[in-house]
Amino acid sequence: MKARNWWVILCVFILVFTAACSSGEGGTVEENNGSNQGAETTNEGNEQNATEAEETATNPNATPEMDFDLGGRTIKLVSWYNEAIPTDSPDNIQRKENLDALMEKHNFTVEYVVVDYGEYRDKIASTLLAGDPLGDIIRVARPWMMPSLVQQDMFWPLDEYVINDNAFVLQYTTDHSQFDGKGYGFRIGVSGAASGVFYNRTLMNEFGMKPLQEYVDEDNWNWETFIQVAKEANKDTDNDGNLDRWGLATASMLIQALSSNETGLVDGNQQTLDAPQTQESLNFISRLATENVARPTEGGDWTEPKQFFLQGNTLMYPGMDYEANDFKEEMADFELGFLPFPQGPSASRYHTHVTIPNYYTIPRAVENPEQLVYLWEKIYDIESIYDYPKQADLEKFFSNEDDINNARDSAESIRVIEQGDYYPSMPYYELVDELVDGVSVSTVIEKYKTPFQAAIDEVWNSPAGE
Predict the structure, then answer these.
(1) Which alpha helices (H) appear in 291-353, and where do they start and end?
(2) 73-192+356-391 belongs to which homologous superfamily?
(3) What is the pLDDT of residue 6?
(4) CATH of 195-355+399-460 given 3.40.190.10, 3.80.10.10, 3.40.50.720, 3.40.640.10
(5) Tens digit of pLDDT for each residue in 33-57?
(6) Cα–Cα 20 to 30 A to 392, which of 17, 29, 79, 92?
(7) How far out from the chain centre does Cα 69 lie?
(8) What is the pLDDT of residues 326-342, one digit of tens each?
(9) Positive or negative CA dihedral for 287, 420, 150, 62?
(10) pLDDT at 33
């Protein structure tokens, strides 16, 4: 009896369980669709969260998505050339698509304003001072704004917004546009041209010289080896008592020397001619002249060193990477190479130099600068098809992998050297001429310290607006 009762209870339990399962699977169409939609929504949310987490993990410095409406506003970007995004490469096509999407989402348009370079500086300054800037985003060169316009609070500091290293060249904010501890500019795209030393491989091989690339590979490319190589290539090949082959196109390389020794002529509002690293740089230039290392001038202008190199009888020429285009066309019979500018004794690595860096700025009269920086970040925050910045250009300039790597390495650190472009009364070229003419370094320093400082004071102490 007890067994039979137990069997009945078990059968009832099975029937109830089966009915419950059938009821769950056999609900109405509406109920099932609602259940599926809920699952899909959950899945989509999970996928979106996963995508955002992946993007954050890929680039934690990317600014989170912002939601704002600019009400049909026209954002004016001012430059001395047309900066509309072309569609000449896959990367630029991505950027243009990003801009189009952002204009639709945030309800704005962009106008690219071009101002003639000869009038640019004065127009920018006068309109800023009048409180009616020419545009919302303005390309400005450092010496045009430092120190007077920044001292007068004409621009927004942008440090807190410019942190995405996939969209911005951060050194332009953290260094090149710095004033009193704040960065006032931002740069998108690539850092700029690489400076270094072009050399004639054909001539090097003809002389049976050690391949110059080996000095770089050995981490032994410095001022001493540079002078040694230049002297070795100074030759009288026809035995007439006069040199007809030269190792170096010019001794006038003070900017490069200062940059490669991690120093300058000015620190803040003080001249630094007698600073140890600056003195090392001056001594280097003096050696090039007094030890007859460089090819002597024939009275030409600033283009003379390049003309010497184009003749095919000079081993080395200090130049910028883009000049390779000229050499390819005019020196087709020669194989050329490119090296970093050699390191000075106080340097920690190779450097590229620039005297007048330029970058985007946002005037104080413009509202919500964080929104403008955000938009340009999102335009340029792309997954590039290239392996490294400027790949297309460098592969066009150079066919040798070593030359490409040298240019890339040089351009990773760009040093700003202030001189006459910043201080109109500074007798910079007079100082260089005396060094190249063989005047002693100590004499040059004593002669030019005071006028250098006077030129600096003239700019830093000038009344507002002048």
Answers:
(1) 304-310, 324-330
(2) Periplasmic binding protein-like II (3.40.190.10)
(3) 37
(4) 3.40.190.10
(5) 333 444 344 444 444 444 445 544 5
(6) 79
(7) 31
(8) 999 999 999 999 999 99
(9) negative
(10) 35
